Amino acid sequence: MRVVWVGARACLVEVEDAVAAASLAAWSRARGLRSEEVVPAAATVLFDGTDPDEVSALLRHWSPDAADLDGPLVRVPVDYSGPDLEDVAGHWGCSVDEVVRIHTSVELVALFSGFAPGFSYLAGLPAERAVPRRSSPRARVPAGSVGLADTWCGIYPTASPGGWLLLGTTDVPLWDVAREQPALLAPGTRVRFEVRG
Protein backbone atom coordinates (compact mmCIF):
# COMPACT_ATOMS: atom_id res chain seq x y z
CA MET A 1 0.00 0.00 0.00
CA ARG A 2 1.30 3.44 -0.91
CA VAL A 3 -0.13 6.85 -0.02
CA VAL A 4 0.31 9.77 -2.40
CA TRP A 5 -0.75 13.16 -1.02
CA VAL A 6 -2.48 15.46 -3.46
CA GLY A 7 -2.46 18.85 -1.79
CA ALA A 8 -3.19 19.49 1.88
CA ARG A 9 -6.62 17.82 2.04
CA ALA A 10 -6.55 14.87 -0.37
CA CYS A 11 -4.63 11.65 -0.87
CA LEU A 12 -4.62 8.68 -3.21
CA VAL A 13 -4.03 5.30 -1.59
CA GLU A 14 -2.63 2.66 -3.96
CA VAL A 15 -3.69 -0.90 -3.16
CA GLU A 16 -3.36 -4.33 -4.75
CA ASP A 17 -6.56 -4.51 -6.79
CA ALA A 18 -10.20 -3.44 -7.13
CA VAL A 19 -11.40 -5.75 -4.34
CA ALA A 20 -8.88 -4.20 -1.93
CA ALA A 21 -9.89 -0.71 -3.06
CA ALA A 22 -13.59 -1.40 -2.49
CA SER A 23 -12.76 -2.98 0.86
CA LEU A 24 -10.73 0.01 2.02
CA ALA A 25 -13.42 2.47 0.90
CA ALA A 26 -16.21 0.56 2.67
CA TRP A 27 -14.13 0.02 5.79
CA SER A 28 -13.12 3.68 6.08
CA ARG A 29 -16.73 4.84 5.63
CA ALA A 30 -17.90 2.38 8.30
CA ARG A 31 -15.35 3.85 10.71
CA GLY A 32 -16.67 7.36 10.17
CA LEU A 33 -13.65 8.85 8.43
CA ARG A 34 -14.33 12.54 7.93
CA SER A 35 -13.87 12.93 4.20
CA GLU A 36 -15.92 14.79 1.61
CA GLU A 37 -15.39 12.01 -0.93
CA VAL A 38 -14.14 8.41 -0.73
CA VAL A 39 -13.77 7.10 -4.29
CA PRO A 40 -12.57 3.54 -4.99
CA ALA A 41 -11.13 2.66 -8.42
CA ALA A 42 -9.32 -0.30 -10.02
CA ALA A 43 -6.36 -0.18 -7.64
CA THR A 44 -6.65 3.10 -5.72
CA VAL A 45 -8.90 4.96 -3.30
CA LEU A 46 -9.13 8.75 -3.39
CA PHE A 47 -9.81 10.47 -0.06
CA ASP A 48 -10.76 14.06 -0.84
CA GLY A 49 -11.40 16.80 1.69
CA THR A 50 -9.89 14.95 4.60
CA ASP A 51 -7.32 15.25 7.37
CA PRO A 52 -3.97 13.64 6.44
CA ASP A 53 -3.30 12.55 10.01
CA GLU A 54 -6.71 10.92 10.31
CA VAL A 55 -6.19 8.94 7.09
CA SER A 56 -2.70 7.86 8.15
CA ALA A 57 -3.96 6.71 11.54
CA LEU A 58 -6.83 4.82 9.95
CA LEU A 59 -4.63 3.01 7.43
CA ARG A 60 -2.47 1.53 10.21
CA HIS A 61 -5.47 -0.59 11.25
CA TRP A 62 -6.71 -1.73 7.83
CA SER A 63 -6.05 -5.00 6.05
CA PRO A 64 -7.49 -6.00 2.65
CA ASP A 65 -9.90 -8.49 4.20
CA ALA A 66 -11.11 -6.09 6.90
CA ALA A 67 -14.26 -4.81 5.21
CA ASP A 68 -17.59 -6.40 4.59
CA LEU A 69 -18.71 -5.74 1.01
CA ASP A 70 -22.14 -7.22 1.73
CA GLY A 71 -24.15 -4.24 0.51
CA PRO A 72 -27.78 -4.18 -0.62
CA LEU A 73 -28.88 -6.72 -3.23
CA VAL A 74 -30.23 -5.41 -6.54
CA ARG A 75 -31.90 -7.78 -8.98
CA VAL A 76 -31.54 -6.82 -12.65
CA PRO A 77 -33.92 -8.39 -15.20
CA VAL A 78 -32.26 -8.91 -18.59
CA ASP A 79 -33.53 -9.70 -22.06
CA TYR A 80 -30.76 -12.11 -23.08
CA SER A 81 -30.76 -11.41 -26.83
CA GLY A 82 -27.45 -9.58 -27.14
CA PRO A 83 -25.44 -9.67 -30.36
CA ASP A 84 -22.41 -11.31 -28.70
CA LEU A 85 -24.09 -14.23 -26.91
CA GLU A 86 -22.72 -16.76 -29.39
CA ASP A 87 -19.21 -15.29 -29.10
CA VAL A 88 -19.34 -15.61 -25.31
CA ALA A 89 -20.61 -19.19 -25.66
CA GLY A 90 -17.65 -19.91 -27.92
CA HIS A 91 -15.18 -18.48 -25.40
CA TRP A 92 -16.80 -20.43 -22.58
CA GLY A 93 -17.16 -23.65 -24.59
CA CYS A 94 -20.87 -23.99 -23.94
CA SER A 95 -24.30 -23.26 -25.41
CA VAL A 96 -26.03 -19.87 -25.41
CA ASP A 97 -28.54 -21.24 -22.90
CA GLU A 98 -25.66 -22.23 -20.64
CA VAL A 99 -24.20 -18.70 -20.87
CA VAL A 100 -27.50 -17.35 -19.58
CA ARG A 101 -27.65 -19.97 -16.82
CA ILE A 102 -24.10 -19.21 -15.68
CA HIS A 103 -24.59 -15.43 -15.80
CA THR A 104 -27.78 -15.61 -13.76
CA SER A 105 -26.28 -18.04 -11.21
CA VAL A 106 -23.47 -15.76 -10.01
CA GLU A 107 -23.78 -13.00 -7.43
CA LEU A 108 -21.64 -10.06 -8.50
CA VAL A 109 -20.55 -7.00 -6.51
CA ALA A 110 -20.03 -3.43 -7.70
CA LEU A 111 -16.43 -2.53 -6.88
CA PHE A 112 -16.09 0.90 -8.45
CA SER A 113 -17.72 3.26 -10.90
CA GLY A 114 -16.33 4.92 -13.98
CA PHE A 115 -16.54 5.44 -17.73
CA ALA A 116 -19.94 7.18 -17.42
CA PRO A 117 -22.23 8.25 -14.55
CA GLY A 118 -23.95 5.12 -13.30
CA PHE A 119 -21.55 2.63 -14.92
CA SER A 120 -20.31 0.17 -12.29
CA TYR A 121 -17.61 -2.45 -12.67
CA LEU A 122 -19.12 -5.68 -11.35
CA ALA A 123 -16.80 -8.44 -10.13
CA GLY A 124 -17.48 -12.05 -9.31
CA LEU A 125 -17.19 -14.01 -12.54
CA PRO A 126 -14.56 -16.75 -12.13
CA ALA A 127 -11.26 -16.37 -13.99
CA GLU A 128 -12.16 -19.16 -16.43
CA ARG A 129 -15.09 -17.01 -17.63
CA ALA A 130 -12.85 -14.14 -18.77
CA VAL A 131 -13.59 -12.90 -22.29
CA PRO A 132 -11.69 -10.44 -24.49
CA ARG A 133 -13.08 -7.11 -25.58
CA ARG A 134 -14.19 -6.79 -29.18
CA SER A 135 -11.32 -6.26 -31.60
CA SER A 136 -13.20 -3.25 -32.95
CA PRO A 137 -15.41 -1.26 -30.54
CA ARG A 138 -18.95 -0.40 -31.55
CA ALA A 139 -19.62 3.27 -32.33
CA ARG A 140 -22.87 3.08 -30.35
CA VAL A 141 -23.91 0.62 -27.65
CA PRO A 142 -27.56 1.06 -26.61
CA ALA A 143 -28.41 2.21 -23.09
CA GLY A 144 -29.12 -0.71 -20.77
CA SER A 145 -26.78 -3.09 -22.58
CA VAL A 146 -25.28 -5.74 -20.29
CA GLY A 147 -21.72 -6.58 -21.27
CA LEU A 148 -18.62 -8.55 -20.34
CA ALA A 149 -14.92 -7.74 -20.68
CA ASP A 150 -12.22 -9.86 -19.04
CA THR A 151 -13.95 -11.00 -15.83
CA TRP A 152 -15.86 -7.72 -15.44
CA CYS A 153 -19.55 -7.27 -16.06
CA GLY A 154 -21.19 -3.89 -16.60
CA ILE A 155 -24.36 -2.18 -17.75
CA TYR A 156 -24.16 0.81 -20.08
CA PRO A 157 -26.28 3.55 -18.42
CA THR A 158 -26.54 5.61 -21.60
CA ALA A 159 -25.89 5.02 -25.29
CA SER A 160 -22.15 5.32 -25.92
CA PRO A 161 -19.25 3.75 -27.80
CA GLY A 162 -18.03 0.48 -26.30
CA GLY A 163 -16.06 -2.67 -26.88
CA TRP A 164 -17.55 -5.10 -24.36
CA LEU A 165 -19.29 -8.30 -25.46
CA LEU A 166 -23.04 -7.75 -25.13
CA LEU A 167 -25.29 -10.38 -23.56
CA GLY A 168 -28.57 -8.48 -23.55
CA THR A 169 -30.40 -5.40 -22.27
CA THR A 170 -32.21 -4.19 -19.18
CA ASP A 171 -34.68 -1.37 -18.55
CA VAL A 172 -33.42 -0.72 -15.01
CA PRO A 173 -32.45 2.99 -14.61
CA LEU A 174 -28.82 3.03 -13.46
CA TRP A 175 -28.43 6.77 -12.95
CA ASP A 176 -31.12 9.11 -11.64
CA VAL A 177 -30.17 12.47 -10.12
CA ALA A 178 -33.59 12.60 -8.42
CA ARG A 179 -32.65 9.63 -6.21
CA GLU A 180 -30.91 10.22 -2.89
CA GLN A 181 -28.07 8.08 -4.25
CA PRO A 182 -28.08 8.71 -8.03
CA ALA A 183 -26.09 5.56 -8.90
CA LEU A 184 -28.18 2.41 -8.50
CA LEU A 185 -25.09 0.20 -8.30
CA ALA A 186 -22.82 2.09 -5.91
CA PRO A 187 -19.63 0.33 -4.74
CA GLY A 188 -20.48 -2.55 -2.43
CA THR A 189 -23.88 -3.24 -4.02
CA ARG A 190 -24.52 -6.92 -4.71
CA VAL A 191 -26.09 -7.72 -8.08
CA ARG A 192 -28.03 -10.72 -9.36
CA PHE A 193 -29.06 -10.90 -13.00
CA GLU A 194 -32.25 -12.73 -13.92
CA VAL A 195 -34.09 -13.55 -17.14
CA ARG A 196 -36.71 -10.90 -17.83
CA GLY A 197 -40.15 -12.48 -17.88
TrEMBL record:
Transmembrane spans: none
Entry GO MF terms: ATP binding; hydrolase activity
Residue ranges of every copy of the Carboxyltransferase domain listed in the record: 1-185
Keywords: ATP-binding, Hydrolase, Nucleotide-binding
Gene3D superfamilies per UniProt: 3.30.1360.40, Cyclophilin-like
Pfam families: CT_C_D
Stored PANTHER family: 5-OXOPROLINASE SUBUNIT B
Protein name according to UniProt: KipI family sensor histidine kinase inhibitor
Organism from which the protein derives: Nocardioides cavernae
Organismal lineage: Bacteria, Bacillati, Actinomycetota, Actinomycetes, Propionibacteriales
